[in-house]
Amino acid sequence: MATKSNELKIEDQLWAAADELRGSMDASEYRNVVLGLIFLKYVSDSFEEKYQELLASEYPEDAEDKDQYMAKNIFWLPKAARWEIINAASKTPAIGDVIDKAMTEIERENSAIKGVLPKNYASPDLDKVRLGAVIDLISNIKVGNAESRKNDVLGRVYEFFLSKFASAEGKNGGEFYTPRSIVRTLVEMLEPYKGRIYDPAAGSGGMFVSSEEFVLEHQGKIGDLSVYGQESNPTTWKLAKMNLAIRGIDNDFGPHQGDTFTNDLHKGVRFDYIMANPPFNLKKWGGDQLREDARWAYGVPPENNANYAWIEHIVSKLAPDGTAGFVLANGALSTSTREEYAIRKALLEADKIDAIVSMPGQMFYSTQIPVSLWFIDNSKNSKNENDRRGKTLFIDARNLGFMADRTTKEFSAEDIAKIADTYHAYKGTNDQEYVDIEGFSKAATLEEIANNDYVLTPGRYVGLAEVEDDGEPFEEKMARLTSELSSQFKESAKLEDDIRQALGAIGYEI
Question: Which listed site, 18, 265, 311, 361, has its alpha carbon 20 to 30 Å from 440?
Answer without folding.
Answer: 311
